[in-house]
């Protein structure tokens, strides 16, 4: 899940609280090239106001046009966009792609609002859920999920859609490289949180970034990392970087990295074992030096290498496979 989908559900809940019926769309599957993965969401109301994305814009336009004509009145239905060559050409789907989309028409009931709050809790990292949708009757429910099962499973008229935490980038301290990372991460759909207690960055404002004036190690120790969190330490300040790393290795964060040369990284690893009491397995979890070796020099180039490495690990690709 991406942070954009948190925004979608927040908007859906706001509209439901205001008494609006909403249309919640969820990508179920894609074929060929498609800009967004299964699980991506869009929400709209009758006026055409909407939040989120299903594709590069063409599918959204087709959906909203149909909505303006009074279509999609059923509580739950699956629509295939780009199924034919003519439709792929009309919608201008990239590389001949197509996608199946669940379209739900939901009225602002107390049950629906409770359901949306449960989905938001899952995306904010509080728990993992599976949505269960009955296409025939339009009924919806949730159940707890403990495994890493597929995003979407369809069996007859029953749909199961897995939800988990939105991707989160935790910046352990602020620096020019960290600020550039924040920009890349936001473009990639991450929720971005920066922790730094230093007075010199107290007044810094980064668009779309939650900046907290405390040590990142404190934030991490208080549950700031879930399984979709990447922790990056980019300050060269051991008081910030080392403490953050020492806490992060005890969390389910999928990526933990620190900036520095090979020699600096070797000294840091020795220091973390000696002072922090980290075991060899803990140190092995750390990406040091951080990022892919693409000859980066400027803050933006280093940030690009960092975010590329974060995505590499998240997608399960080995460095040797690049």
- How many domain modules? 2
Q: In angstroms, what separates the terminal alpha carbons?
A: 24 Å
- Helix count equals 10
Broad structural category:
alpha/beta
Rg (CA only): 22 Å
The tally of strands reads 15
Multimer state: single chain
Uncertain stretches of 5 or more adjacent residues: none
InterPro entries: MoCofactor_Util/Proc, XdhC_CoxI, XdhC_Rossmann_dom
Domain XdhC- CoxI: 15-66
Domain XdhC Rossmann: 169-310
Protein name: XdhC family protein
List keywords for this structure.
322 residues, alpha/beta, Rossmann fold, 2 domains, six-stranded parallel β-sheet, five-stranded antiparallel β-sheet, 10 helices, 34% helix, elongated
Please specify the SSE layout and strand pairing.
Blueprint: H1 3-17, E1 22-31, E2 41-44, E3 50-52, H2 58-68, E4 76-81, H3 85-91, E5 98-106, H4 110-123, E6 129-134, E7 140-144, E8 152-155, E9 158-163, E10 168-172, H5 176-187, E11 191-195, E12 209-212, H6 216-221, E13 229-233, H7 238-248, E14 255-258, H8 262-274, H9 280-284, E15 286-287, H10 299-314
Parallel strand pairs: 10-11, 10-13, 11-12, 13-14, 14-15
Antiparallel strand pairs: 1-2, 1-5, 2-3, 4-5, 6-7, 6-9, 8-9
């Amino acid at each position: 899940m991406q942070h954009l989908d948190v925004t979608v559900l927040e908007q859906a809940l706001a509209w439901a609280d205001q008494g609006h019926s909403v249309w919640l769309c969820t990508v179920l599957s894609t074929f060929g090239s498609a800009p967004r993965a299964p699980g991506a969401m869009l929400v709209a109301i009758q006026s055409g106001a909407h939040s989120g994305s299903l594709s590069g814009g063409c599918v959204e336009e087709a959906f909203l046009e149909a909505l303006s004509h009074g279509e999609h009145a059923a509580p739950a239905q699956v629509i295939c966009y780009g199924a034919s060559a003519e439709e792929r050409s009309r919608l201008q789907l990239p590389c001949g792609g197509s996608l199946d989309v669940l379209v739900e028409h939901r009225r602002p009931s107390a049950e629906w609002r409770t359901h949306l709050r449960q989905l938001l809790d899952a995306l904010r990292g509080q728990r993992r859920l599976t949505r269960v949708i009955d296409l025939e009757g339009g009924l919806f429910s949730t159940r707890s999920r403990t495994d890493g099962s597929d995003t979407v499973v369809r069996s007859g008229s029953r749909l199961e859609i897995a939800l988990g935490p939105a991707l989160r980038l935790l910046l352990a301290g602020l620096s020019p490289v960290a600020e550039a990372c924040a920009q890349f991460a936001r473009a990639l759909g991450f929720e971005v949180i920066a922790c730094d207690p230093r007075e010199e960055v107290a007044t810094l404002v980064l668009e779309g970034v939650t900046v907290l004036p405390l040590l990142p190690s404190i934030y991490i120790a208080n549950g700031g990392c879930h399984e979709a969190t990447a922790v990056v330490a980019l300050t060269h300040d051991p008081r910030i970087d080392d403490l953050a790393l020492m806490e992060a290795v005890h969390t389910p964060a999928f990526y933990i990295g620190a900036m520095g040369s090979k020699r600096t990284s070797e000294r840091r690893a020795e220091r973390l074992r000696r002072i922090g009491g980290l075991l060899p397995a803990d140190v092995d979890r750390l990406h040091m030096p951080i990022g892919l070796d693409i000859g980066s020099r400027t803050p933006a180039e280093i940030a690009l290498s960092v975010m590329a490495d974060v995505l590499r690990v998240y997608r399960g690709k080995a460095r040797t496979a690049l």
